[in-house]
Write a structure and sequence with these properties.
Blueprint lengths: L2 H28 L15 H13 L5 H9 L2 H4 L4 H8 L1 H9 L8 H12 L4 H20 L7 H16 L6 H21 L1
Length: 195
């Protein structure tokens, strides 16, 4: 390999690592006072980290913009972060991807959930992968340590809704599709035993 090509590859890798670390630090700062709804009230940052890790390790995703967006995917929806702030810090591609997966919190919850299904069908390939990974992570959390006070009926309603979203996001990443199939099947089996 020519020395200048090796240097370009190395710089790209360093730049991508820096981007991901910057996104993780930004998300950790924005989510620092938030807790998940599980019984342990675990730190919220665990969720975006899990989504990014799932995309990379189980989905084979190497696109640093998609992985950074996974780390940032709830910052605009659930913190004081803005899309302008994300664009200034991470560029227009990452900001646009976060915008694609961000719910409008001014709308009632039932409307936001319906819009997620509607928007999923028309989302970019990257947004579809992020949506599936997010739903897989949420379902795993529901099985491992469900939100405090969630009865079986609410868990099943979440699975039904998540399936509708995921159905619109399939066909982009075979590994994620397979992981989705395994996760939803496992969740259905596990929740049947709660019945």
């Amino acid at each position: 390999m020519e020395p200048h090509l090796a240097l370009n590859i190395m710089n790209t890798s360093v730049n991508e690592s820096s981007l991901l670390l910057q996104a993780a630090a930004f998300a950790a700062e924005k989510h620092r006072h938030q807790r998940r709804k599980d019984a342990a009230a675990s730190p919220y940052i665990n969720h975006p980290l899990a989504v990014a890790w799932l995309l990379s390790s189980e989905g084979g995703v190497r696109d640093s913009d998609l992985l950074a967006a996974a780390l940032l995917h709830d910052t605009v929806e659930d913190t004081d972060a803005t899309l302008v702030e994300l664009e200034q810090s991470f560029g227009p591609a990452i900001s646009a991807l976060v915008a694609e997966v961000t719910d409008d919190k001014s709308l009632p919850k039932h409307r936001r959930k319906a819009l997620q299904i509607e928007h999923a069908a028309h989302a970019s390939a990257s947004a579809k992968q992020l949506k599936i990974a997010d739903k897989i992570a949420n379902i795993r959390d529901i099985l491992a340590d469900p939100p405090a006070g969630w009865p079986l009926e609410r868990k099943l309603e979440y699975l039904d809704w998540a399936e509708q979203v995921a159905r619109c996001c399939r066909g982009i990443n075979r590994a994620l599709d397979a992981r989705w199939d395994a996760t939803i099947a496992e969740a259905r089996r596990a929740l049947k035993t709660e019945d």
